């Protein structure tokens, strides 16, 4: 298979979205595919989908995305844009949009060839103190937690017109649901999916067309069998794909749903975890792993596959990244990763990025983000090649033997975090951001106490300041 074929523009599908499985090693194993959205660049799968924060890929402007990355799709959480509550109207709903165009694309200024995916919550979502209700979703906006009417979420699809819209699911975060709560999750999600299908049909009649992905609940197949049965019997021909919150969910999918593309919103924070989920049959990953490494000041350095195994395992595994806060890089003029062809490695070196981090220059995280996305793009390209060649499992085994599972512990601090990025754990918790400024009261007092003597000071006072003393 030509791994670069999907990166070229191909004839548009007749439908809004088409997914083709090109190769599958087994019924529930890794598979090669192509996801084609009308008017967008086709995406070769397996692949990853960068997360966004309030409409942008962190640290990357739209021109840098176009010039220095191969990012083909992005995930947006509606909660990022709707801090204003009725009767106030969020700005994203008021911006003019081209006829039959995407208001989401216009507001975020992303290129026409990018696939835009809209869900209710940012990823990873903060655990909310509020619960979902029969007609409401618990969300976290930039001004705090609140509930969003499910009908308002559904109407946002027609207003914003993303390429892919994720139907709302009754997802419990932070705790394991009870048997009774699990049954309610299935009932609510089925009802919300029915409303989402109705809203999609109504929007299409008005010229607002998008693809609809249905949720698979993070429950065992047995606990959601009635929901899956309803999904197959009532909605199979109304949904265009599936998304999961637990990669294990794809293993027990009914046969009628296996041909649909699968997006995973799972906390995969290492390449080993990504490889494991690929082995289960996940096609696309919404992942914050790349951004987390960048924020930590870590340059990713892993390659797939690793070097061929020689029958023995080295006790010291290779790191999947390097901490550029470490002073060992202060005079290192080698690229972030030898052999890397990204913009950062071609034009700069470790010592320069270390200096930028120490000076808290924004350019440090820009260069790291460009590099880390390049490493991820190369990683998934190599994964697709190994699946096509039938060597994926052997390559995965070699990779797991040679590389660490986690990112190195960083010795510095990242960019400032916002309230909608991390939830407070309660009283006595340390502040997440280091103080940039301090009060000057103590400093002013110290200056006054140590004021230099004037011209009329006698010799005795000069000696009290340590001047004129005999040694």
Automatic annotation (TrEMBL):
Taxonomy, superkingdom: Eukaryota
Pfam hit, one: TGT
Positions of the tRNA-guanine(15) transglycosylase-like domain: 29-404
Keyword tags: Cytoplasm, Metal-binding, tRNA processing, Zinc
Signal peptide per UniProt: none
Binding site for Zn(2+): 340, 342, 345, 371
Cellular localisation: Cytoplasm
GO terms for cellular component: cytoplasm
Annotated region (Disordered), positions in chain: 408-428, 445-471
Cofactor section: Zn(2+)
GO process annotations (BP): tRNA modification
Co-factor note (free text): Binds 1 zinc ion per subunit.
Biased composition (Basic and acidic residues): 462-471
NCBIfam families in UniProt: tgt_general
Assembly mode: Heterodimer of a catalytic subunit and an accessory subunit.
UniProt xrefs under HAMAP family: QTRT2
Family: Belongs to the queuine tRNA-ribosyltransferase family. QTRT2 subfamily.
Name of the protein this chain belongs to: Queuine tRNA-ribosyltransferase accessory subunit 2
Organism, scientific name: Verruconis gallopava
């Amino acid at each position: 298979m030509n791994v670069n074929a999907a990166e070229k523009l191909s004839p548009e599908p007749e439908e809004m979205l088409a997914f083709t499985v090109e190769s599958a090693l087994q019924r529930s194993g890794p598979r090669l595919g192509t996801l084609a959205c009308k008017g967008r660049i086709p995406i070769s799968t397996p692949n990853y989908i960068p997360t966004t924060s309030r409409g942008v890929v962190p640290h990357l402007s739209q021109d840098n995305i176009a010039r220095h990355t191969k990012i083909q799709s992005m995930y947006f959480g509606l909660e990022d844009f709707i801090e204003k509550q009725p009767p106030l109207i969020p700005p994203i709903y008021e911006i003019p949009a081209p006829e039959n165009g995407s208001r989401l694309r216009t507001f975020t200024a992303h290129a026409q060839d990018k696939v835009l995916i809209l869900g209710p919550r940012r990823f990873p979502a903060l655990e909310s103190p509020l619960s979902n209700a029969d007609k409401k979703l618990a969300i976290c906006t930039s001004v705090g937690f609140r509930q969003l009417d499910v009908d308002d979420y559904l109407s946002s699809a027609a207003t914003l017109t993303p390429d892919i819209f994720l139907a709302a699911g009754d997802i419990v975060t932070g705790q394991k649901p009870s048997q009774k709560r699990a049954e309610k999750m299935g009932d609510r999600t089925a009802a919300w999916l029915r409303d989402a299908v109705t809203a999609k049909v109504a929007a299409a009649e008005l010229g607002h067309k998008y693809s609809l992905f249905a949720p698979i609940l993070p429950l065992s197949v047995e606990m959601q069998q009635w929901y899956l049965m309803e999904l197959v019997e009532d909605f199979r021909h109304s949904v265009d794909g599936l998304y999961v919150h637990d990669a294990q969910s794809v293993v027990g999918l009914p046969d009628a749903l296996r041909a649909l593309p699968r997006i995973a919103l799972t906390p995969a924070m290492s390449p080993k975890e990504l490889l494991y989920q690929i082995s289960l049959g996940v096609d696309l990953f919404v992942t914050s792993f790349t951004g987390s490494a960048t924020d930590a000041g870590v340059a990713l350095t892993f390659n797939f596959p690793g070097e061929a195994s020689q029958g023995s395992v080295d006790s010291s595994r290779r790191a999947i990244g390097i901490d550029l806060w470490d002073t060992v890089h202060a005079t290192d003029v080698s690229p972030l990763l030898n052999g890397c062809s990204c913009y950062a490695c071609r034009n700069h070196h470790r010592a320069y990025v270390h200096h930028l981090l120490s000076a808290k220059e924004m350019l440090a995280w820009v260069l790291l983000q460009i590099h880390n996305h390049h490493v991820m793009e190369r990683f998934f390209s190599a994964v697709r090649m190994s699946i096509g060649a039938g060597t994926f499992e052997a390559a995965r085994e070699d990779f797991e033997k040679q590389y660490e599972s986690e990112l190195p512990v960083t010795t510095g601090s990242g960019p400032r975090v916002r309230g909608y990025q991390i939830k407070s754990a309660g009283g006595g918790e340390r502040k997440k951001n280091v103080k940039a400024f301090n009060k000057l009261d103590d400093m002013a007092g110290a200056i006054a106490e140590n004021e230099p003597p004037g011209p009329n000071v006698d010799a005795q006072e000069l000696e009290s300041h340590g001047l004129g003393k005999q040694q």
